[in-house]
Write a structure and sequence with these properties.
Blueprint lengths: L2 E5 L2 E4 L4 E8 L8 E6 L6 E6 L5 E3 L7 E6 L4 E6 L8 E8 L8 E3 L3 E6 L1
Parallel strand pairs: 2-11
Antiparallel strand pairs: 1-3, 3-8, 4-5, 4-9, 5-6, 7-8, 9-10, 9-11
Length: 119
């Protein structure tokens, strides 16, 4: 059974940093594409950052240069380093693990972790 557990959310001042983690069990992060997504109240869930099974990355324009997605195979964990946080980054952040080794087949989801950046 696949389980993804996010941690690391919290409340920070604008300009601050947080590092989110997504610990996986029943799932090998190094073998699959994964992503971080966020959903603000009343809005849809949007992709923030994506990392392919071979390590290629892409980012939403709104976070480029500020956020970094990475995997640690030894810890079987996905990370999102978030720097220079802005109030508009406030949302629930979710870890998604691709169901297949290719993108487009849907995701397994974690329960989410709340991030709030205040001005």
């Amino acid at each position: 059974q696949v389980q993804l557990v996010e941690a690391g959310g919290g409340s920070v001042q604008a300009g601050g940093s947080l590092r989110l983690s997504c610990a996986a069990s029943g799932y090998t992060v190094s073998s699959y594409c994964m992503g971080w997504f966020r959903q603000a109240p009343g809005k849809e869930r949007d992709e923030v950052a994506f990392i392919g099974s071979y390590g290629s990355t892409r980012y939403a324009d709104s976070v480029k240069g500020r956020f970094t997605i990475s995997k640690d195979a030894a810890k079987n964990t996905l990370y999102l380093q978030m720097n220079s946080l802005k109030p508009e980054d406030t949302a629930m952040y979710y870890c998604g693990g691709c169901r297949y080794t290719y993108e487009g087949g849907g995701y397994y989801w974690g329960q989410g972790t709340q991030v709030a950046a205040s001005s």
